[in-house]
Design the sequence.
């Protein structure tokens, strides 16, 4: 194991255990420095920009539609429990998940928390 990977595992597990905090309008999006700190915890997620808004996005692959749908249901239950909701596109054999915080039109620490929690669903 590389020496730096222990830090990544620690940050990732910290995010999985963290709870989302209510985000109100007027809060800043995460800075580039904060993104650099949080990004290693969710390395398979892409940062994409759509309509001028940065988002975390990842495609999860499954054997069939039933597997994709079951994952979508688990993700929906997780989102409800945390009070933070993604954009989800469920297709045959794949689910595309996008996290961003609508009220601030960008990325918040909550989005990284939920990306890590989403990864934990497929364990």
Sequence:
């Amino acid at each position: 194991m590389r020496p730096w990977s222990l830090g990544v595992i620690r940050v990732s597990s910290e995010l999985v255990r963290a709870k989302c905090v209510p985000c109100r309008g007027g809060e800043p999006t995460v800075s580039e420095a904060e993104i650099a700190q949080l990004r290693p915890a969710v390395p398979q997620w892409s940062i994409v920009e759509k309509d001028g808004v940065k988002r975390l996005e990842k495609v999860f692959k499954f054997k069939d539609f039933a597997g994709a749908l079951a994952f979508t249901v688990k993700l929906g239950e997780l989102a409800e429990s945390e009070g933070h909701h993604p954009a989800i596109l469920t297709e045959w054999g794949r689910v595309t998940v996008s996290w961003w915080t609508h009220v601030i039109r960008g990325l918040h620490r909550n989005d990284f928390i939920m990306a890590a929690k989403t990864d934990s669903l497929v364990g």
